[in-house]
Amino acid sequence: MALMNIGSGPAFNATYQLTPLDEGVFQPPPHHLVHVLNNEAMPIAVRIQSVSRGRWSVTLTYESLSKRRYETGIAIDGGMLTRVKHREIP
After folding, report:
1. CA-CA to 74 of 20 to 30 Å: which in 57, 61, 67, 84?
2. pLDDT, averaged in runs of 10, over the chain (90 residues)
3. Number of domains the chain contains
């Protein structure tokens, strides 16, 4: 699995958190990335078998070059993306 920065600039102080939405599933700790350059794919430490079963929420946060902060929320159900929501955060 990988993250791809499709923005026009680099993403700094990037983090991602996977949260299982089904009970009894191990929740991995948050992961931190230093930066993700634009048009760059960054491999992340998630086994595809983990998210191909059950329901998961993935939250990505990062800062832009201008210090604005953003969050992208992704819903995964049985390995399929079912929702992506992007917003600026204070």
Report:
1. 67
2. 82 87 78 75 70 86 93 91 92
3. 1
